[in-house]
TrEMBL record:
InterPro entries (UniProt xref): PUA-like_sf (IPR015947), PUA_sf (IPR036974), RlmI-like_PUA (IPR041532), SAM-dep_methyl-trfase (IPR019614), SAM-dependent_MTases_sf (IPR029063)
Keywords: Cytoplasm, Methyltransferase, rRNA processing, S-adenosyl-L-methionine, Transferase
Main location: cytoplasm
Transmembrane parts of this sequence: none
Taxonomic superkingdom: Bacteria
Boundaries of every RlmI-like PUA domain copy: 12-66
Organism: Xanthomonas arboricola pv. guizotiae
Name assigned to this protein: RlmI/RlmK family 23S rRNA methyltransferase
Protein's GO biological process: methylation; rRNA processing
One GO cellular component term: cytoplasm
Length: 388
């Protein structure tokens, strides 16, 4: 006999298709379901709204997963949703012909709020952002095994997520990194030894586009992390490549990635702020400058300070671009809107005394889709400029 699904009632009329319902809109259920319990959500008049995860400890009280009352959220549901996500990447985007590293599930962008999955060869990296996804992880693992037979798993959740969502997870780690290929260029993807889930697959198309501009050019890759842009540039014929990052661990991985491709970019471990000031004082300039810093904040109250930091680093970076050169600048801070980022860049141009001609505005690759009604999944901003 099936166990009845707990019911959560809303306090006010619900006129949104967004999957997040916040605590202030939800009546506290008498049964007090555990964080991540699957519940039915009903409106103030008892009308059925949807089915999803409930968490009385999280700012997001409910994450709606299903809006068809006849469809249960169970192991079969996860199997179908993950199969559909993989089909998009394989059958429509044809990503297997480009790389063996791509995003399998992009949270709300694939109708799986609170779950991110990346694939690196035979290594599948699962990141939990919601107690419900963590609680039902065995269904997720089984659905992924159906799509990637024989795969290895690395699973984790950031500490701040565990605190916000009220669950404890020490991780399920694999022992070996994976070596992946992207447009013929090799990288080591190690989720235990780098930022994010092991490799920045979201920049795939941006790396490819930029690599077509660098032959015979001098290239500076700021906040180079594991060397994605730098290694591409060196492999695609740049005359000189220098990567700078403050993290010595990712510099070591970047050097290993260069070795995998038999190229010899230089890497320097340094804080880019004093390094750029010194480079400017020395009169150094490069044909192509890339600036791809880590996420600045996840706190809405810190967006203005984050924009100030973006302004400062972009001003300095523009100062080392040769006249007529190319400047590629990025932001992966989801709370910073594209228009805010473009306005920051306008001000950086003014304060640095450099005129910029915007050639292209882009974002993450198509394996990072977002729903029109859920803009939170659209986080990466990419702006390619000519400094004239």
């Amino acid at each position: 006999m099936n166990t009845p699904v707990p019911v959560v009632r809303l306090k006010n009329a619900w006129r949104s298709s967004h999957p997040w319902i916040f605590q202030k809109l939800v009546e506290k259920p008498a049964a007090k379901p555990k964080p991540g319990t699957i519940v039915d959500v009903v409106g103030v008049d008892g009308e059925w709204i949807g089915r999803g995860f409930y968490n009385g400890h999280s700012r997001i009280a409910v994450r709606i997963l299903e809006t068809d009352q006849a469809v249960p959220v169970d192991a079969g549901w996860f199997s179908r949703k993950i199969a559909a996500a993989v089909s998009l990447r394989r059958d429509w985007l044809k990503l297997d012909g480009v790389s063996d590293a791509w995003r399998v599930v992009h949270s709300e962008g694939d109708g799986l709020s609170g779950l991110v999955v990346d694939r690196y060869g035979d290594l599948v990296v699962v990141e939990f952002f919601a107690a419900g996804m963590f609680r039902h992880r065995e269904w997720i693992y089984e659905a992924l095994r159906e799509q990637f037979p024989g795969c290895r798993f690395h699973s984790f959740a950031d500490e701040h997520v565990q605190k916000q969502e009220s669950f404890d997870f020490h991780g399920n780690t694999t022992t070996e990194a994976a070596v992946i290929t992207e447009y013929g260029i090799k990288f080591r993807a190690d989720p235990a030894g780098a930022h994010k889930t092991g490799f920045f697959a979201d920049q795939r198309e941006n790396r490819q586009w930029l690599s077509e501009q660098v032959e015979g050019k001098s290239v500076l890759d700021l906040c180079c992390n594991t060397g994605g842009f730098a290694v591409y540039a060196a492999a695609c014929g740049a005359s000189e490549v220098l990567g700078v990052d403050i993290d010595e661990d990712v510099i070591a991985i970047a050097k290993g990635n260069a070795k995998l491709n038999n190229v010899r970019p230089r890497f320097v471990q340094a804080d880019i702020f004093p390094w750029l000031r010194d480079a400017s004082n020395r009169g150094e300039q490069y044909d192509v400058v890339i600036l791809d810093p880590a996420k600045m904040t996840r706190d809405r109250e810190q967006v203005i300070p984050a924009l100030k930091k973006y302004l400062d680093m972009n001003k300095l970076a523009l100062g080392v671009v040769k006249p007529g050169g190319l400047f590629a600048t990025f932001s992966c801070t989801g709370l910073v809107a594209e228009q805010e980022f473009l306005d920051m860049l306008r001000r950086a141009s003014y304060f640095s005394g450099r005129t910029i001609q915007i050639l292209k505005v882009a974002g993450a690759g198509p394996d990072h889709p977002f729903m029109a009604h859920v803009q939170e999944s659209r986080y990466l901003k990419a702006v390619f400029c000519r400094v004239v």
